[in-house]
Amino acid sequence: MKLQHTLTDAQALALMTLHPWAAHHGDRALSVAIDALLEAEQGRRGAPDAKTGAVPVAALLQGTLLKAEVDPSLHGDAQGWPLDAVVVDVRGMMGHNARLGFARGDALLRAVVEALREALPSATVVRLHADAFAALLGPTSGVTVDEADRGRVEAVLASRLAPFAGTGDDAARVETVVALLVLRVVQPAHWQVLGPLVWSELERALLLEKLGRADGLQRRRIELGAAIPGEPTASGEPTPRG
Description:
The protein has helices at about 10-20, 30-45, 55-60, 70-75, 95-100, 100-120, 150-160, 190-210, and strands spanning about 55, 80-90, 125-130, 130-135, 175-185, 220-225. By secondary structure, the protein is α/β, with parallel strands linked by helices.
């Protein structure tokens, strides 16, 4: 049965309020806005984005990307829930887009994703932000990261990104920053808690690497034991002041 598609004026206004840029498409504005809405929801559920092939960060922050990775019977002890990751950021991506054009710039970013998949076939590659990606290795991957992985990942990146370097007078190199993270979250209450925690630790690992403050393999341990600092107080009692 073929469905009949009808939008009310209120629905159309709400849709264009969500995606006002779609108005530039004229008569196709509503159709373009609907496609954008569908793409965003599919990305939240873990579908790769069309430009890079990586999973959108919304799937990590709001979606079910980590749901299958959490088993309370295994991860409720002191060993915690494990995640290893390799994070890659492309330096000066705005300059590469200006030099190559946006279509070729998107191809460069896709090459980064392909490099991570080649170096770490068991990983799920997530697009953290515009030009940064993380290869996630959860407990079901059976793979851990160590310092030796840096050289292997950087070698594959160099090979994949070589076609995007400049030539002659425009001898621009495509440089990347690579951060390695080993994360353990003790007593995670729910899989939805993990997404924002993982995202923030990935971004922090990348920033420390950029600032030169990382010492090789970065290790993090987050305790979620529901402990509250300070003296316990009963309901209705004022907090003691020292």
